[in-house]
Amino acid sequence: MHISRKILVFALCSLLLWSCRGDEVIYPTIGTHVTDLTGKGGLYILCEGNMGSNKARLDYMNLEKGDYYSNWYGAQNPNQLKELGDVGNDVQQHGGRLYAVINCSHKVEVMDIQARHIGQVEISNCRYMAFHGDKLYVSAYVGSVANPELLGSVYEVDTATLQITREVKVGHQPDELCVIGDQLYVVNSGGYLVNQYDSTISVVDLHSFQEVRRISVGLNPTRLRKDDHNQLWVCCQGNYKDVKPQVVVLKNEQIVHRIEMPCANISVCGSTVGILDGENKALCSFSTADYKSLSTLSLSTYEHPYGLLLTEDALYITDAKNYVSSGVLHCYSLTGQECWTAKTGDIPGHLCLVTGAYDLHGDTTHHDTTATYSPYINRVYEFVPGMGQFVNELPKYEEGDDAESMCRKCEKAIANNAGGMISLGGWGGYVTFGFDHAVENKEGRDLQILGNAFYMTGSDEYGSSEPGIVLVSQDTNGNGLPDDTWYELKGCLYDDPQTEHNHAVTYTREGDTLQNPFHKHPYYPQWLTADEYTLNGALLPPQSAKINNQNVQRILDFGYVDNKPNTDLEGTSFDLSWAVDASGQPVTLEKVDFIRVYCAVDEILPQTGELSTEVAGAIDLHIEP
Amino acid sequence: MVRRKLFIFIFALCAVALFAEPDTLYNRFQIEEVEVTARALTKDVIIPQTLKGAELQRLNALSVADALRYFSGVQLKDYGGVGGIKTINVRSMGSQHTAVYYNGVQLGNAQNGQVDLGRFSLDNMEQIQLFNGQKSDIFQSAREFGSAGNVYLTTRKPYFKTGERVHAHAQMRFGSFALANPNIGVDVKLTDALSLTLDAEYVYSDGKYPFRYKRVLPTGETAYDTTAVRQNGDINAVRTELGLHHYYRTTGFWRLHAYNYWSERGIPGAIVNNVWRNGERLRDRNTFVQGEWQDEWFNRWSTRVLVKYANDYTHYWNYDDRLLPSNNEYLQQEVYLSFANKVQIFNWWDASLAYDYQFNTLARENLLLEAAPEHFNRHSHWLSAATAFNVKEYLRVQASVLMTQITNHQSPITNPKITPGIFVSFRPYPKIDLSLNAFYKQSYRYPTFNDLYYTDLGNANLRPELARQHSVSLDYRIQNSVFSIQTSASYYYNRVTDKIIAYPKGQQFRWTMLNLGTVKINGVDAKADLSFYLPLRFVLRTRLNYTYQTAIDITNPNDTYYGHQIPYIPWHSGSVVVGLDWTSKRGDHYGLNYSFIYVGERYCQQENTIYNYVQPWYTHDLSVYGEWQLRAEQDKQPVWLKANIEINNLLGQDYEVIQNYPMPKTNVRCTLAVRY
To answer: Residue A186 domain-assigned?
Structure first.
């Protein structure tokens, strides 16, 4: 008995050593200061993670502060069910958004530029992405319909709706792809067909979305990049036996050069192509003009060189180590001096440079999982001005701009407290913007929208007022896009019998003849591809008067943008409780995701031209700056 | 003179076997002429962990894998559900260092070296034993000296009382996840010496169990909380077994055992973001026939012959339209022969010599690529010599040496490997069953066909992986009419070198197998089996197990995981089983059994970072049973009715043994059995 008691005591003691199970806490985000050397913007690092581990991880490096955040996506999206997913395969930015292909989660994750979830596109076994205009093209190892030849597909996705619009069947296991003109090129690796690798590029015509031809390049092509001369650089892996790997350069679909070397990764910047030789552990640079070797950077200390990004001021190369433990991100100067390194997640494979440098709230050396929100708008979704004298000027249109790039220009002017201004042009012209969060409807005014109105000296009744009506909307379909029901914030003239609620104006390119002597440029928005467009909304009664020989407007009581000076907080702010639906019935909105302002007056004054609402930013009044 | 002639005969046989083709060998072993009787040394040099008979039936366990969780030093890998793969890892050396023997013959899987213990039902099982190092008795086949940990599964043997000719049982089990599990068996006494057993079982489960993923923010707020149902975890399996036992003399017997298992199942797969269902399917058939013959001559000489033929078919395919389809067939065949002899030189000294030969083939066919099937084969020879002796009553020593020669298809022929083992047991007090046991053993884990020839990944130049075990233990047993106690505490130090691991090649995601890893293992096992025979025919049984181990990777100091605990090895683990049995005056039995299993924190990858951390899990299981004698007249064979209800994971813990493979919440099983 004596001994058994001892054993019992021992067993009880060992029970105390055991720890209990607690709540499963989401994976933390860990910020580490890795360098005092600073660059510009930030860098996203997509770590693939091994198949079945669900450990795809999006890390972020703030290059301006030298802070590396592991699991940045987790901090931005703590509620995402089962995190980012299984096997990250590509990350790119486009139109102010971040896109990541999560191969074994069969989705393209769509995020805002700070990696906050917007939506996802379900594509089975998706591999790589390319963008063209407002379309996203995604290669996938399987098509939507199974086929006995095991051919893959390329999908076309509308970035506005995140819906798949078209699909084309290509070759075996298509990987990287890119667009030149109106042709899409995708490599068919055949990587799953051991000893029967594919060796072609499929050319897809973007109008018909049909495969028009195949170009034979070399066995097992996996990577494909476009350079500054519209040449295609293709990495062919060979068969790992007698057929050696090679890099093939194509110009106008003809092979113009071959380099016999292994290629683990490739990156193009300006007129330089960097090729990562995984076997001999080196980065070899070539000129896109004459394919001559420019330099070689030895990476002999690496275990497995894997990811690569060449930028205008630095080289980023990752070491994937043994693929089942954390990797390392190395940064080099353009002369090949190592600047700093950072520990990444498992298999850091894909890098994406962004212009923004972001922080998570709090001390970066500690875990933190919630980002603070900015009180300023951060995003412009749409910008469609009415025809007018400041159109193509505020912001400035340049050759090659499209709707997306004009939105980015608007962001530069008015987002993040930039202090600039945009003009909505003639009646009906609008801008749609949002914050990095939803604006809550709380007690009192919720939102201030800035303009450039002012009182006439000595008057508290007249001044420069170019009123715009505010519409708000909730992202009820959850796609992150302003395509949901709009509600008007009811201003003081809403019930005025002279207000015309269902007004519409069609602007045409032909009718662009209004130019005044001060603005000798087209008034029609030059980035619009259509030759006419129609705007709808309410038209407020004219308020202009001539006082002391000045053209002035009566300042309205409340509820309009660009009506009272920005210094008048109450006069420029809005209460979400004012919202009414299309029939004028009040609606209760707990919060709103999108805000639209449109020019609600249609008057052309001598000398100063048409009245047009200006927007200079907006502020969420519930958040401390 | 006679003895010397016999020796020569045995050596000649071994020599023939070494060079002969398997077919001719088979015939030679039909000889039956020698006659020796030898007495085994009575006490164990290596004390096994044992679960048998009623104790085994009382556990909340459906398969052998479930039962092995109650042994110390054992880590079970369980992918969840009735159909999920279950393998064990003894003392952290890796599951392929553990050999599993079914009625004395090793179960093989030359393809991947893994034996799925979830397939072996407890219904036909009489005893499960785990030996660290090797079996105590040196009278064993050569191959049995070759593995680091040995699990022996022994199926039901027929026992007939005087006048009984037939035993039969029928059983039905129902449970959660649509479990239906009927089992029938018959034992027939054909003659006084010859008996036959038949056992058949069917298992069905739809595998649809609910599981929950809940995560919270550091503030305690819920981040997400979702419950889903496991899909594609269904299983249909049929097992049939036939045994023939012929005890023609007190010392001599032969047995024949035929086994067939057929199953079709879904592979439920990992639950990852946006993937809640997978489409992989597996169909397999395992068939083997094995024979055993044993006899003794001159009271000193024992001979045992084992023969086995196994034929295993596996068909794996994937109909998940999100993945590239796959469709592969594998056919494995195995021929095995063993010839073991033991001689008692003096009554304190035994020696044994054994020779085994095995031939394995694997045919692999990718049905999608329409390529010609690939064939691989392997010849294995084992030759063992062992001796055991006693020094008075104080000391028992066993020493063995094994020579292994394995020749793989396409691989270079290597020199035979020689591995020693030495086991010592010291009993200071002859009257007290207290012993200090120690052993040192080397063993090799040979590369499997997958390691060697997996498409584009295999490496035909692999060396076997070496495990060196050092172990000391203190064992104490005492038994009287009031209680019985068996306790043991062990310390072990193991070192695994040349560990075979998948390692990436220079090119992207192309892996190869290399002899790269080194692991150092330190552990302590403590266990106690306590039974108290209480008044009023109550018996209280308690079984306690605790293991503490560190298993650290010391491959390369430059690795980020150098010095880290290897994946899925918890520092702490253990179990507690408490059972209360009561026998009525009439002879009916009632019992209540509670068990608790704990597996402590561990990491799911080599690197011990917070991103790879896995929480502890522990389950409480409860079962009640009653067994009633329906016909209790004298001199008539009794009929028993038994009912059993098990509740597993009583508190409904949402846990994972392997990350992303959720385990079932609370589940129930009911069994009703009639035995004649």
So the answer is: no
- What does the alpha-carbon distance between residue B265 and residue B281 come to, in Å, rounded to a whole number? 6
Given a contact cutoff of 8 angstroms between Cβ atoms, the answer to whether A96 and A113 are in contact is: yes
CA distance A126 to A90: 9
Flag whether the ipTM exceeds 0.85.
yes
A30 contacts in chain B (CB < 8 Å): 610
Q: From residue A109, how far is each of A61, A85, A93, A552 by CA, in Å?
A: 20, 9, 11, 50
Statement: residue A469 has pLDDT above 90: yes
B29 has pLDDT over 50: no
Helix spans in A335-465 (H): 403-414
Q: Which of B324, B544, B559 sits opposite A150 (nearest CB)?
A: B324
Count of C-beta atoms within a 10 Å radius of residue A178: 21
Tell me how close the Cα of B24 comes to any Cα of chain A, in angstroms.
41
- Residues 6 or more apart in contact with residue B345 via CB below 8 angstroms: B351
- The range of the structural domain enclosing residue A577 comes to 377-620
CB contact residues (below 8 A), chain B span 213-232, against chain A: 213-218, 220, 223-224, 226
User: Phi and psi of A172, rounded to 5°?
Assistant: -80, 130
- Which residues lie across from A455 on neighbouring strands? A463
Residue B600 C-alpha, separation from nearest chain A C-alpha, in angstroms? 7
What percentage of chain B exceeds 90 in pLDDT? 64
**Chain B residues touching residue A323 (CB < 8 angstroms):** 504, 509, 511
A497 within a domain of the structure (yes/no): yes
C-alpha A454/C-alpha A466 separation (Å) is 10
Contact A18 B214 (CB under 8 A): no
Residue A516 has pLDDT above 70, yes or no: no
CA–CA gap between residue A349 and residue B96 (Å, rounded): 33
Tell me, what's the pLDDT at B34?
30
β-bridge mates for residue B105, sequence order? B102
A124–B213 C-beta distance less than 8 A: no
Mean pLDDT of chain B: 87
Cβ of B216 within 8 Å of Cβ of A102? The answer is no
What would the pLDDT profile of B268-295 be if each residue is shown by its tens digit?
Answer: 989 999 999 888 899 999 999 999 999 9
Cβ separation A27–B610 shorter than 8 A: yes
Q: Indicate the number of domains in chain A.
A: 1
Q: Does residue A503 belong to any structural domain of this protein?
A: yes
Beta pairing class for A532-539 and A183-188: unpaired
Beta strands in B156-279, from DSSP E residues, in sequence order: 166-175, 179-189, 194-205, 210-216, 222-229, 235-246, 253-267
CATH T-level topology, domain B2-675: Maltoporin; Chain A (2.40.170)
AA letter at A526: Q
Which chain A residues contact residue B600 at CB under 8 A? 18-19
A223 falls within a domain: no
The pLDDT value given to residue B8: 39
**Residue B609 contacts A, CB cutoff 8 Å:** yes
- Residue that wins the pLDDT comparison between A147 and A160: A160
What pLDDT is attached to residue A456? 83
Å from B39 to nearest chain A CA?
A: 34
